[in-house]
Amino acid sequence: MSEILRGIGYPRPVSIENFRSPNFPLVADIGRWLINQYEPKTFVPEKCDTEQDRVAFIRTFAEFMVCSFWQYITNIDAPQKGNPIP
User: 20 to 30 A Cα–Cα from 20, which one of 30, 36, 75, 85?
Assistant: First the structure.
């Protein structure tokens, strides 16, 4: 995990030891960082104190990732203007 995060440019060192017990603040920080790498203007809830806050954060993160992935896939499969599929 730490090698992957380092490889994609995550600024903080992360050890597997950070996840021996639940560590939602670190998960949220990684999620915010990922979203900001792709779309800096996307609203991401900052507060993750309560269970409702955490659910809202995970929902926002999941929706963003699904939408981003869907846009990526449809752009790959869509014919370019002037280059119709034969």
Answer: 36
pTM, to two decimals: 0.75
**Closest alpha carbon to 32 in 2, 3, 65, 70:** 65
- Per-residue confidence in pLDDT tens, the chain, 86 aa: 788 899 999 999 998 899 899 999 999 999 999 999 888 888 888 888 999 999 999 998 999 889 888 877 777 655 565 555 54
Count the neighbouring beta carbons within 10 Å of the beta carbon of residue 54: 16
Instruction: Judge whether 57 and 48 are in contact, CB under 8 Å.
Output: yes
